[in-house]
Protein: Beta-ketoacyl-ACP reductase
Organism: Sneathiella chinensis
Amino acid sequence: MSRVAIVTGGTRGIGEAISIMLKEKGYQVAANYGGNDERAQEFSKRTGIPVYKWDVSDYKACEEGVAKVKEDLGPVEILVNNAGITRDGTLHRMDQESWQKVIDTDLGSCFNMCRAVIEDMRAAKFGRVVNIGSINGQAGQYGQVNYAAAKSGIHGFTKAMAQEGAAQGITVNAIAPGYIDTDMVAAVPPQVLEKIVAKIPVGRLGKASEIARGVCFLVADDGGFITGSTLSINGGQHMY
Ligand code: CAA
C-alpha cells in the first residue's frame, strides 16, 4: 500500500501543488481545507484527491480530522503542515485578534497536527513531517510581526521535533518559501510587491510547483538522513 499523506490547506495555492505532486508520485493524499467549500469540491473533482474540512487552529478538530483520514485511508505517515494565513499590518495598528489568529493558525496548527499523528508515526517507526515556514520567518518583514513570529516559531518547532523523532525513523524538516505566485501574495499591494520582486535575483515570483518539488524530495523513503533542516526556496532573495 502506498503511504498516506495529509496536506493541510491542501486545496489551494502552494498546498494544492503539493497535494497534486504527491498524488502523482503515488502517495494516497488527503487534502485538508478550512473554509472554501466550492474551491475544495472543484479541486477534488478535478484531481480525484479526497478533501477533508476542519480548522487546523482547533486542537480537537485536528484530532477528529486525522482520525477520519485514518479510518478512510490508513495511518498517516506523511504530514505537510502548509495551512497558513496572513493578517498584515504594522504593529502600531494591529489588533490582538490579528495577532492571535495568525499565531493559532500558522503555528498552533503545527502542534495540533503533529500531536494528532505522532503516536502512529512512533508506532510505525516511520514518519515524514514537512512544515511550511517562510522567508519572512527567517528575515522578518515590514507589516508582519504576527506572521514572522509564527513562521519563525515553525523553524524552532521543526528542529526540536526533529531531535525527538530522529531515533524513531521520523524526519521533520521545514521549507521556507519566498514570494510564490499565489492568492496570498496577490493580496500584497502592487506597489509593495513590485519592490519585493525587484529584490529577487531570479527576477520573478516562484511557482507553487517549485515548493511541491521540495516537499517530494523531503518526504521520500530514502530521505531518512535529512532531518531538522530548512530548505529555502526563494529565488535567491535571502541567503544566509
Ligand atoms: N520597508 C520599509 N517601509 C515600508 C515597507 C517596507 N517593506 N512597506 C511599506 N513601507 C512604508 C511605506 O513606504 C509608507 O511610508 P510613507 O508613508 O513614508 O510613504 C509606510 O510604510 C506605510 O505604507 P503603506 O501605505 O503600505 O501602509 P499601510 O498601513 O496601508 O499598509 C502594510 C502597511 C499592510 C504592511 C502594507 O505595506 C503591506 O501589505 N505590505 C506587504 C507585507 C508583505 O510583504 N506581506 C507578505 C504577504 S505574502 C506572505 O506572507 C507569503 C510569504 O510567506 C512570503
Q: What stands out?
A: Residues 184 and 215 are 19 Å apart (CA to CA). DSSP finds nine helices and seven strands in the chain. The chain has a mean pLDDT of 97.
